[in-house]
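quick q for whoever's on today - can somebody do inverse folding on this one?? i tried earlier but teh output was garbage lol. tokens:
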């Protein structure tokens, strides 16, 4: 049976960890199609992995099995989970990394992975990606009923959602994600922008308290409407208010980090 299995980890690309997982999967289901979402998640950054999964999972074919291994709690009492949603499966540690995507996709069942029949014969205390998550994903790709894996879970760990305060002309939020280009995603959504009354061409004042920094940026439709090197704000492809520099890096220019608080006001 040919099914898609995706892998998303913080393992990097230079070690043996990822190919070991792929080998386990292919030994169980040689017809599986394995897709690497990324292995460049910063080490132990659960929220960045969760956001990356949320932003990408829905574009895969129905029935895809998404495996996530960003697992600083490996080998402890933290549970291993499989989650079935309307169209997908998610496999990984119970540390919140799966829940943003799973809740978005409509959860139908969550199981704790406890049946050792679907794990490797010897389970390392430090590499559940290879010994637990990879074989479980492979067996699911062959049609395994996830109820055979273990008991139902009703209290999965969820990540805290950074709070937003939005009103007319004002928003208080945080930087939730910085992409490869140095664009900084705030937690302000397109619906919040409507509440703010923000329109194209308006100028924003962006205050970053940690840096004692004030930045002005125009709110534009896309990068090309700004001059090269100009700071701008826009609604990005995922529906967040993004802070950018046209053909540059907002994060590098201003020393911005994920988690930074930002206060945004319309000045004109």
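ok took a stab at it. sequence:
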């Amino acid at each position: 049976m040919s099914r898609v299995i995706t892998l998303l980890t913080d393992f990097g690309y230079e070690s043996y960890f990822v190919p070991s997982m792929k080998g386990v999967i292919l030994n169980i289901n040689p017809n599986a199609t394995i897709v690497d979402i990324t292995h460049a998640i910063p080490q132990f950054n659960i929220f960045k992995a969760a956001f990356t999964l949320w932003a990408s999972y829905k574009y895969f074919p129905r029935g895809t099995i998404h495996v996530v291994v960003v697992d600083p709690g490996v080998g402890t009492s933290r549970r291993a989970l499989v989650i079935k949603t309307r169209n997908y499966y998610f496999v990984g540690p119970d540390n919140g990394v799966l829940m943003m995507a799973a809740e978005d996709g409509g959860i139908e069942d969550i199981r704790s992975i406890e049946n050792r029949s679907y794990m490797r014969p010897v389970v390392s205390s430090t590499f559940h990606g290879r010994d637990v998550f990879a074989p479980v994903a492979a067996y699911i790709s062959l049609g395994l009923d996830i109820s055979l894996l273990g008991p139902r879970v009703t209290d999965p760990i969820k990540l805290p959602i950074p709070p937003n305060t939005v009103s007319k002309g004002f928003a208080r939020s945080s930087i939730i994600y910085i992409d490869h280009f140095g664009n900084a995603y705030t937690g302000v959504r397109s619906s919040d922008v409507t509440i703010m009354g923000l329109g194209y061409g308006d100028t924003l004042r962006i205050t970053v308290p940690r840096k004692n920094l004030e930045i002005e940026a125009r709110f534009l439709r896309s990068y090309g409407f700004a001059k090269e090197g100009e700071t701008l704000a826009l609604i990005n492809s995922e529906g967040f208010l993004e802070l950018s520099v046209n053909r540059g890096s907002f994060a590098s220019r201003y020393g911005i980090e994920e988690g930074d608080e930002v206060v945004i006001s319309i000045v004109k």
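fwiw The chain has a mean pLDDT of 97. also DSSP finds six helices and 14 strands in the chain. so keep that in mind when u check it
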